[in-house]
Amino acid sequence: MNMAKLFDTVTIIGVGLLGASLGLALKQKALAGTVRGVGRRRPSLDKALEIGAIDEAYLEVAEAATGADLIVICTPAAAVPQVLDAVRPVCGKSAVVTDVASTKAVLCAHAKQSWAEPYRFVGSHPMAGSEKFGPEHAKAELYSGSVCFVEQFNGHAEEAHTAVMDLWEKVGARVVQVEPEMHDAMVAKTSHVPHIVASALSQLIENGGAEGAPFIGSGFIDTTRVAEGRPEIWRDICLTNPEAIETNLSEVIRLLREAADAVTRLDGPQLEKFFRKGRDARLRALER
Amino acid sequence: MNMAKLFDTVTIIGVGLLGASLGLALKQKALAGTVRGVGRRRPSLDKALEIGAIDEAYLEVAEAATGADLIVICTPAAAVPQVLDAVRPVCGKSAVVTDVASTKAVLCAHAKQSWAEPYRFVGSHPMAGSEKFGPEHAKAELYSGSVCFVEQFNGHAEEAHTAVMDLWEKVGARVVQVEPEMHDAMVAKTSHVPHIVASALSQLIENGGAEGAPFIGSGFIDTTRVAEGRPEIWRDICLTNPEAIETNLSEVIRLLREAADAVTRLDGPQLEKFFRKGRDARLRALER
Q1: Is B192 within 8 Å of B244 (Cβ atoms)?
Q2: Cβ of B18 under 8 Å from any chain A Cβ?
Q3: Can you list the domains of chain B with their CATH numbers?
Q4: Which of A191, A266, A51 is nearest to B237 (CA)?
Q5: Which residue of A161, A222, A285, B53 sits 20 to 30 Å from the alpha carbon of B189, by its own alpha carbon?
Q6: Model confidence over A25-73: pLDDT tens digits?
Q7: Distance, in angstroms, between A206 CA and closest chain B CA?
Q8: B121-162 confidence digits (pLDDT tens)
Q9: pTM greater than 0.90
Q10: For an interface test with A, which of B199, B239, B258 has the most A Cβ atoms less than 10 Å from its Cβ?
Q11: Facing A253 at nearest CB: one of B199, B234, B257
């Protein structure tokens, strides 16, 4: 597809799966002139250069952000505020800044508080990761057909807000504008708490090996798949969305305690009701 | 494939996904002369007849079991003991009896206690179901490549034990012999508790619809898939494996409480450790 160039110079801070895939998409669709990549470790930067996700490699955020038209922060969530603080003093008056973290309220509030209005950071959350990570799994089509949440207009520079929505649409995502607190409350239910629960379920299996292997079926495999995600990413998600996670985790614990009590009482009708509620809720959630 | 006939007359009690699929496999591989199906509802029996899973339809267990060489009980788990009691007085001295329930200790103990040795019930658990159900989803290949647990030899008539292992191998399963209590302890961890947890997670989503839809990603879909299973089946599993389910459900609740406390304290190192333990345990469980 032939598209107009959106940005002369793009700086991607963090060249993992999301950052490197974005670089690949920008290059392959000719949406950017030069793509700069920032990393803390040389091997990741070399890999990103090798696959063509970035044109230039940097170890310093400030150096890489200077003169860039678009800066995309692709670090774990808890690092975003400090990276923003490093970017703000060096980025130009027309620069646009966004991120890809799975939590939005804390990060967007930090940007708003630390930046004079109209401010140029517009938070994003592309729902396009997986339990895989690192530039070696990057692909230009990662965002194609995915949903990307973009922070609702709220004192931003209007052209920055438009540019961020353009960016995600041009790499194939469907943009959904959302208020950060509402976003965090919803993803706590659909992603963050399910992840914590999948991790706890995995921990039930103390020993793998030949003895346990026949008991591992598709149910266990699917239910726990996300538990293979990177611990640092999920630690940061918890640290930046604690209230919604606590609320929903407490509700899950309450429901499980209720189910455990029904098992103890051998209460058939109550157990059937429990499973029926779960089935009906899932069918509704998937609009079936 | 051309195979020798294993049984002249087979009676399948319960013509749902597992029962009808077994009937189809027995017919298509010419492993059985006549397959009788027993159901409580006429439409299921008609469907099973229509797809060729059974040759004859019955509403009465005793009538269908009389004169059969193999009787396979494919009802929900909690109904197995009473079906066994209905089968025992009418089945011939050379008849072989098995089941397909996901719990084994309670059912195998009932058979052993109610039957003079050498007894002819050999418990089975083919790990081949899914959240789909009913004869309309039956397929002859359902068991192909799956694991089927068969109760360890324990006072059975030897030829009955051999016949049940033959049955599952001939329809394509890999037989794993197991002691019933050990079986139930393991599947509580890998299947029963994950199912209860998936149901609780689904219940977090009160409302589906357009507003919630963009937040449903592949993580939620996989983590909760099994929650669409039949409530009656899972109620019965809980009623027939209460101790192992309670123990492991309590452990999951303890782990989730620990995680929730770490979120409250914003304890990054503890959260990272939690997710790392989950990831490592899953990698080990899958022998990667």
Answers
A1: yes
A2: no
A3: 7-178 (3.40.50.720), 183-285 (1.10.3660.10)
A4: A266
A5: A285
A6: 999 999 999 999 999 999 999 999 999 999 999 999 999 999 999 999 9
A7: 7
A8: 999 999 997 778 899 999 999 999 999 999 999 999 999 999
A9: yes
A10: B199
A11: B257
